[in-house]
Design brief:
about 350 residues; homotetramer; alpha/beta; 2 domains; seven-stranded mixed beta sheet; six-stranded parallel beta sheet
């Protein structure tokens, strides 16, 4: 039985705690820490059989019974806590993104070096039943050599403008999942990114220096062309589709719905719109990613998404930001050179 | 080039004339006859390149250049004109049903005996792209041994009560197509029929001694169980679906629609309802059945639907009528014995 | 917090225990009893935070802290334990069927009389996301007045012949769920049942006096016609579809699949077959039915499925058995008269 | 009755001739001209009731009974014959593209000026049942304000390399239809085009200086972002889909198939791939565009696709060519300036 500590008891921390306690054999949450720990959360933790619900995550890092931590705290603490946890000898599962700052991700990488510890970054979408089956079909050669990947990713509604301002921008906050999908489905890293964008949803997003709508074209290193279309608002719900076209065919996935009732009447045929809420849509994926993290600890094999998989999408987001600003295609190599220079 | 005469210039006669002139290579309509032939129809015929548009179909039967006739006149004339046409040495394509009276169908059969003439009955649905592909899938073994056939057949709206009164009843007029489908999809003749019915659409249909809604269960001679559900009205259009379940799987067909637009909004996803009008739904099937009739004349092979295929559904309709009246399963053998007795 | 006792720690008992502990707020399992209780199950119970894992269910009935029991033991014990539990003052959730013997169900009914206790029978399908949404659409008038209900229910593979022999026969064991659906979707009790059946899957099922394939036509008291098609084997998985046709339209549900990947290649387009295993298909429904049972205890309102809802499908199964044997339609009234006579 | 002359008796000329004769009331083909006119084509014309099948199209232009011509000759003759026909006082339906050379299109425009003649360019896709219904949904406000248009357009197989060399390149030959769709579905002209391309299908296409795969991003003047993905080869057939996303929802269209049979077996569910051949896919659209051309002549209203609609997609193709060559976004204004300069 692997003892787990969870750092951060917000929405996603609670999701992971519930997953481990009810769906992940061979692991249990021993402690959960949050600076805003309150009575309600303590009771919830007790109800799930979690021994300790505390304020200070250092208690988790110091507990020799705890082998692994899930970092579910605010984004700006992901990389420093990652480093502390690694130094404390814990396996780490870290919510995405590791950091918006490439240098800090590199510190995590160098801290990990030479240690026999597992590190996994929380790009949950790879563990979704549809996306995972799509990638498997491609990997199994069902479409031949991949040539075009298309990803539709539209949020049901925009975040608050306060969040937008600290989010790192749409490419770093929202498209980052799609950048991960581009790598996952094409089987390659990116070479060049081009963005055509708009502010359609809310002018205050534009005033904050961000965009809310974009078409992103990416050339991957293996020659696959990827196109992502994003919007911060979709009237019909959370729109999460993808398609991989190759030399022998095409594989695609549609949205999930709450039920499959179809009603035909004198006007038309009506059916359910896509699920609205990302937690509803990806609940099983959140459980699956943690399960695979635990499996990697037990088997000694690599986690499915290592720290490099946390770095690459950040580079793609930076290239997208620069392309959007300068209105031209931008190579990842150029971003790396920019970083060197700084 | 096979010269065709068409007897009857009503809706279906015109459909067949247009098909032959524009879609059936190797045949052309030389003459069309209708007791109510008028100027408008004459002009229409001329526009299609039909030489003669006349009142008396005997001119067609007497024309030695005409090899084949399509009988599209009123139902009560189908069997007598069939007999005249056969005696005049013409190949015959006869709209369904040949007759409501089994004795008259048998007269057509005996008139045909010993003659080198083709006879085809117009069960158009066998030539529909969906039904034909479904039957082919079954025949090719895609579902293993067939065990259950399900046929949904609902008209968009009931005929006039005047028509209902002369129609021979729902089983003879509407279900007759489904009885043909039962034979087509099961690959067998019927052994026993059971009906559970209702009058839901219009009480005057009940007052006329007919029903407008029914579940019909049929045991075929090869053991396949068939269930047909009928209604004389469907708010959403012409509902024509089927399913064949077998030892290795199931094959099914859905309705056709005018287009495949899907619109997802804040309420639901909307798409087109099924096509409403039978001519719209089966236009290509009407052309295909005539094309295969002409092909049979040219090749010398049997037509895809001989005169026996016109008889069997009538026997099934009679069994359905008796089952409905006596509220018990009725065997086809019992119907045949009844006919013998009369 | 409502304390629950679970009687029976087999497959379904474990499913319900997990549901209560992780998905049903306001309730927790205090004890689980099973005559074959072993170390492995004890550990599993402990992991879920269940205090007591015991052999004798009487400990549960005698525990004043336990307000409600879930009866998940073998079918033959459902009615006697129901009676004991009611007499001990517990609310009862009882797995289907309450009993194959109508007299025993009536004993449960009379034991309940005058008591302020909740009783729910476990027809889980009513709580499935698709079936529940279909019924809601009908109840909300989306199809007008219901006229035809069609239910397809095919198991992926037949049970062992040993199970078949003690199962009460296909109608009592498998179709019983569909009889419940007939009542649920039509909004009425049954009046008359007609069966046309076959033995296609395994001759030894026939030798055991049972059937494995059937078309069942039911006339409901409100005039709705229901048709159920059953098979004990479907090569493509667990086939669970339904359709309600009414004066204003039709509503229907399809099967659920593991994912919605579509792969188009040079031959055809391929997608996932239906889920194979009933627990996978109905896992959420099992949680939802228990949740609603707990809700009824808390709110004081009726459970969604009372003891009468356990009785009616048994009467329908008996009518089906008699129809199948005597090859004629059989009224429920006739079954009730038979019972009176005995 | 409007007399039509058809110039060019190749594949598309024959399609239009058949459409007019059988599906367009109020018009008939009086003559068809082709420099390679032969006996076989003459017989075919006679069978359709076309009076004259000749070699020299000038006979058509000189025939005072002929009011309108359909120009179906080779691409390089489209603009000169358009001009001759306009000068001869004929209404003109011209197959796409009018010309690859903008100057020549402008000559057609200036020749038309001040004349009461109809001119229509043959972008057939606008008349397809799916694309037309999609555009209507958008125009009717079903998705609110359009923001993103996505067009998938993949040919089943590449043309011969000989054709590729004279085709004007993929953007001018194939994407030109998609550029028209971009304008049709967005309701706007284009402002800027960016291309990311590849040669995946056949290296000899690359050697000929062309590409066979591309992602094309377009910003329209009204702010709508359009993305087109093209490939000269799709193993599963002719892939023609589109999607319009807007402030209130999304509308999309799928491919058409030969039939809708679904076969579920022990492996998966199989259904028909998209139609393979463009004539099969768009046969009805070819008839509808000519019908609307004739309707415009009769009503005096504008044709649905005037000569400007022939010009704009050529400008977009030129911008795509330049973007592809210089690997940067290119504005239509820049292309117009280039033309001015020349």
């Amino acid at each position: 039985m692997t003892n787990i500590g969870i750092i951060g008891a917000g929405r996603i921390g609670k999701v992971h705690a519930t997953s481990v306690q009810t769906k992940v054999p061979g692991a249990k949450v021993k402690a959960i820490a949050d600076p805003f720990m309150n009575e309600e959360t303590k009771e919830w933790a007790q109800g799930l059989g979690i021994e300790k619900a505390i304020k200070d995550y250092h208690e988790i890092l110091e507990d020799p019974d705890i082998e692994a931590v899930l970092i579910c705290s605010s984004t700006d603490t992901h990389s420093p806590i990652s480093i502390e946890a690694i130094q404390a000898g814990k396996h780490v599962f870290c919510e995405k993104p590791i950091d918006h700052d490439v240098e800090k991700i590199k510190e995590v990488i160098s801290t990990l070096e030479g240690k026999e510890l597992k590190y996994q970054v929380g790009f949950n979408r790879r563990f979704d039943h549809n996306f995972a089956a799509l990638e498997k079909a491609v990997r199994d050669g069902k479409v031949g050599t991949p040539e075009i990947v298309k990803i539709t990713s539209r949020d049901p509604e925009p975040p608050s403008i306060d969040y937008v301002k600290v989010s790192g921008g749409m490419f770093m906050d929202m498209t980052i999942h799609d950048f991960d999908m581009a790598r996952f489905l094409s089987g390659s890293d990116a070479e060049e990114v081009y963005v055509q964008s708009a502010v359609n949803v809310d002018p205050s997003i534009g005033e904050a220096g961000d965009v809310d709508t974009a078409i992103i074209t990416i050339k991957m290193k293996n020659g696959v062309l990827v196109v992502i279309d994003n919007c911060r608002r979709a009237a019909y719900g959370y729109d999460q589709r993808a398609e991989v076209f190759g030399s022998d065919g095409v594989a695609l996935i549609e949205n999930d719905t709450a039920n499959n009732v179809q009603i035909a009447g004198s006007e038309d045929v009506r059916s359910s719109k896509p699920l609205f809420f990302f937690l509803e849509r990806y609940m099983d994926a959140y459980a699956e990613e943690v399960k695979q993290f635990i499996d990697a600890i037990h088997s000694g094999e690599d986690t499915p998404l290592g720290v490099k998989d946390g770095l690459e999408p950040v580079l793609m987001a930076m290239a997208a930001q620069k392309s959007n600003k300068e209105h031209r295609p931008v190579k990842i190599a150029e971003i790396l050179a920019d970083i060197e220079k700084d």
